[in-house]
TrEMBL record:
InterPro entries: Flag_bb_rod_N, Flagellar_basal_body_rod_CS, Flg_bb/hook_C_dom, FlgK, FlgK_helical. PANTHER family: FLAGELLAR HOOK-ASSOCIATED PROTEIN 1. SUPFAM superfamilies: Phase 1 flagellin (SSF64518). This is Flagellar hook-associated protein 1. Keywords: Bacterial flagellum, Cell projection, Cilium, Flagellum, Secreted. Residues 86-322 form the Flagellar hook-associated protein FlgK helical domain. Belongs to the flagella basal body rod proteins family. NCBIfam families: flgK_ends (TIGR02492). It is found in: Bacterial flagellum; Secreted. It comes from the Bacteria. PROSITE patterns: FLAGELLA_BB_ROD (PS00588).
Amino acid sequence: MSDNLLRIGSSAVMASSTLLNTTSNNIANINTEGYVRQRTEFEAQILGLGVGRGTTERLVNEFTLKQLRRDTSAYAYSKQYLDEANRVDALFSNPANSIATGMNQLFDQFQIANNDPTTLANRQLIIGSSEALLDRFNTMSTLVLDQDLFINQQLDIYVDESNGYIKQIAQLNKEIASYGTGASRPIPLNLLDKRDEAIRKLSEMVEIRTLDAKNGEKLVFMATGQSLVVENGDFSLLAARGNPDPSRKELQLQLSGNTNVIRDINVKQLGGKLGALIAFREEILDPTQNKLGQVALSLADALNEQNKLGMNLNGELGGPLFTLPTFSGFPYQGNSAGSSLTGTVEAGEGSKIPPNDLRLTITSATEVRVEAVDLKGNVIPGSEVLVNVAGFPATINADDAGGDLYGFTFTITGDVGDQFEFKPLATAARQVGMATTRPEDIALASPIRIDQTLENLGNGKIANLQVTDTTPATAPDYGFTAPGGLVNGPWTVTYLGGDSFQIEDSGGAMIGTANFGSANYQNLFAEAGVDVGFDFSITGIPSIGDTFSIEYNSGGFNDNRNGLLLAGLQTDTSTTRLNALSTPGGVNSASFNQTYASMVSLIGERTNQARNSEAANAALLEQSQLWFESLSGVSLDEEAANLIRFQQTYQAATRIISTSQTIFDTLLSAVR
């Protein structure tokens, strides 16, 4: 009897002591990161003699734990994205940084100068506004570049952190697997806590999935399917490197045992902080930088071309106002030695530049393929342009491509299969410069003056004068001469009757004859089949023998006709290209301000979406944490109650032992 009581009492004391230890351990680790509440359970002994062996386990629900990891990834993604987006949004929402304000100020100065074209001070204001606008382009592009460099730095830091967690999980897997799955060597619960916490921290970096192996290991995979931690402690490492652009960090996977084995990562579903950085760069940073470069190049090219169609204050043909840079392409790894690519904006083709990077491939010894790529680096279907060449090195332009080579002229050399990434817009806004600082070089006047002879009897009048090309010697026999003049000018246009006009030079030589089928005298030189770089129409009804004199606009300094066209570029909706697929013009074109406004709107829209997403994911994460902690978290109130209860159990168990001792002593006394 006393022997049974002693056995029962001893097991009860041991059991109560274990329960007290478990409860005390829970209380002690209430502030330990990743600690999961523990519980000890016992079974009754066979024949009811005391308490059996106790088992201490972690109170964790695997489904809740996985949900917590998913919500942690989602919140880390939205929080990181919002932090990055807020910085860019603050830059472009500040009126002091507005490119649109700078463009408006420049065109306002053109309007002021047009009111008095001979005033040098008004022209100087155009030069000053141009320099101020370029400074804004440079400043904003540099600030965006700083954000890009910051993204690269963060990628390096987060990759190192992620690799640390991956290695830690793999090492803990080894330690846990070494204990086996039997009851003889139970796995220390703190190892499981450490592993779960390392997995949770990894889920902040990338969205992950886990599987349980038979030996107790946790297999970790990215949401896109690539394995990070597999059995026997093997793992993969994340790496950030750029190909072909070394300044643009991309994520890849390397095998731990052989770093030469590289696997590409589908960043679309990467998740976590790393996924947020990649998404922010693709959805906000790159489009912003590309749009800045596109507007800078198209604006500079448009003003250059229009200024060249006018006459400056020195009576000479206008020249470029801005310098446009030469861009180098990035060769892909594996290209042949000596392969290279350079590109420049083709004069007058700036409106055809899309807001995309380009990929050039030498497909054969006589062909180059040019394709536009999206912000994820994928070729845009339908954007392919094939250009035939005679060999390499080769120079190709819009004429070689049937009229549209995305606004650039390329010089390319290499072997078949060589590829290049052409990214001019990433640096364009910082590289456009001033071609002149002389206010006299602004060509506000038209280089052509057409007058009707006073002796004309009809009411024919000159209309719709359009200058399209002032390049000297463009036309074979007639056209402009440098620094300012017409070949054998002035010219005379005479109405012959029968809807026909004769064009002669100053020496009486025939230039051409325009024969119209009706009294709709549009574009006389085109009708005559002569290209001289300009054209005009005649309205009204001329009389036979009426003449019109065409001459270089010498002394026409008070003329502002070309200045009005320069100012009109502000509202021209065909100056920038919206996308690479459709031909520029119509619904695929916009003005400078419209393009810039769409860029600023995109930043604000993306930032607002990120703000809403961050708030929603924060609420979901809070809910998941409460759900997880309701089972796995330590409650001081609950543990304090258990401590009192188990203390009382312990005291009661000691009374069993003392009672058994009293009974045993009584039995001994009875038999003496």
